[in-house]
Design a protein that fits this description.
The chain crosses the membrane at residues 15-36, 42-63, 94-114, 121-142, 167-187, 208-227, 233-250, 282-303, 318-349. 76% of the residues lie in helices and 1% in strands. The protein has 16 helices and two strands. It has helices at residues 2-10, 12-31, 39-64, 72-89, 94-117, 123-142, 152-159, 172-198, 206-228, 235-253, 255-265, 267-272, 277-303, 314-324, 336-355, 360-386, and strands at residues 166-167, 170-171. β1 (166-167) and β2 (170-171) form a beta hairpin. α4 (72-89) packs across α13 (277-303), α11 (255-265) crosses α13 (277-303) and α14 packs parallel to α16.
Length: 387
């Protein structure tokens, strides 16, 4: 019991948000008379929140370094407009337009990163200027009108599913993917546990370890079973999974990830320790620009149009997801997984409140209150540890 208490205290924010997500889902499952967890709605949840989750992955790195990016919604809109011009007006192949759009996003990130890292203008000011600049450029490029439709192949980024084989109304490929992910997770956890023991690190008891494996395996297979009973695994879910795995690995297992955390924890100390703080800041914003471009492409594909108002408030949802998921406003703390959990909390709240018929006024108010409580909880825990 002591081990469980210690484990929970050391990870209170992460576990707390997971518990909160489960409670919110169960609450809306009851309030919507079972609509929330229906296969079609679970799929819609993934499709509706994918572009915010992509932004949250990039935003959590920015917040960990102690900065903020207010321009990501405008960048997403601008990149979507550029992609529409290339694909619809110029008739360029979709793959070429996608690559060019990602380069545009990276260049925008480099532009902002230069002012923040090397000229030392606060990120709030630079990205606020970027929000206005790229929103204006979006309207100029689109001439105040929407451009559509996109090629069918491009639309499948957001609306397509992995090829599946149906058997008794179930997608076999989706079920097999669930089993494969479970095996991969168990093998990875066993290796990690063996490595920790080899080097003398403290590990949780065998009972808790087995319970963790069973819970994760059950949730994974239940999730893929639900997807298999509707249309299978969405293409966008595959992209999200790859991004989560890659960025989690970078942040937890690479020198670059350690440097990002060190920079956010104490920039001067990181610089004295040999971290090239300006370079790290620059590349974090290049990365943010690229992921904003990915988000813009996903949203444009889902909407099947580039519109002047695309991306509105995306930055606020992404920032809220990071803070709800455990990132600290003072920098140095946060995880990719936490940002995803925070994004899902926001997504389930939006979806659940819409299903029960709450107006947009109530939805905005409740989301604002959730954000405030999440940050207050973080500050309370910090003060408690400091005492």
């Amino acid at each position: 019991m002591e081990t469980v208490t210690k484990l929970f205290k050391n990870n209170i924010r992460q576990y707390g948000m997971i518990i909160a997500l489960v409670v919110i889902m169960l609450l809306f499952e009851v309030l919507t008379s079972g609509l929330l967890l229906k296969p079609i709605n679970i799929t819609n949840l993934i499709l509706q929140n994918s572009y915010i989750l992509v932004l949250a992955i990039g935003m959590v790195l920015v917040i960990i370094t102690g900065h903020i990016d207010l321009s990501v919604g405008s960048i997403a809109a601008f990149v979507g407009a550029v992609a529409a011009i290339m694909m619809v007006d110029w008739q360029l192949p979709a793959w070429l337009a996608v690559i060019a759009s990602l380069l545009v996003g990276a260049l925008i990130g480099a532009w902002q990163g230069f002012w923040i890292a090397y000229v030392r203008i606060p990120a709030f000011i630079v990205t606020l200027a970027g929000m206005l600049l790229f929103r204006g450029l979006t309207m100029i490029v689109l001439e105040g009108q929407s451009i559509s439709p996109f090629p069918a192949g491009f639309q499948k980024i957001s609306s397509g599913f992995l090829p599946d084989v149906q058997f008794s109304g179930m997608g076999l490929v989706s079920i097999i993917v669930g089993i494969a992910l479970t095996i991969w997770y168990i093998v990875n956890e066993l290796r990690e546990r063996a490595s920790q023991r080899k080097y003398g690190f403290e590990v949780v008891s065998q009972g808790l370890f087995l319970l963790k494996l069973i819970v994760v395996a059950a949730v994974t297979n239940l999730f893929t079973f639900v997807l298999a009973s509707y249309a299978g695994i969405p293409n966008i879910l595959v992209l999200l999974f790859v991004l989560i795995v890659v960025y989690s690995f970078v942040m937890n297992r690479t020198v670059m990830g350690r440097h990002v955390y060190a920079l956010g924890g104490n920039e001067k100390a990181a610089g004295l320790s040999g971290v090239k703080t300006k370079k790290v800041t620059f590349w974090v914003f290049v990365n943010m620009g690229t992921l904003a471009a990915v988000s813009g492409l996903i949203f444009a594909a889902r909407l099947n149009a580039a519109t002047p108002r695309a991306g509105t408030n995306f930055e606020l949802d992404a920032i809220a997801a990071c803070f709800i998921g455990g990132a600290s406003a003072s920098g140095g703390i946060g995880t990719v997984f936490g940002a995803i959990i925070g994004g899902l909390v926001m997504g389930v709240l939006n979806n659940g409140m819409s299903l029960i018929g709450l107006g947009i006024d109530w939805q905005q108010g409740i989301k604002g209150l959730v954000l405030l409580l999440a940050v207050a909880f973080d500050i309370y825990n910090k003060n408690k540890r400091a005492a």
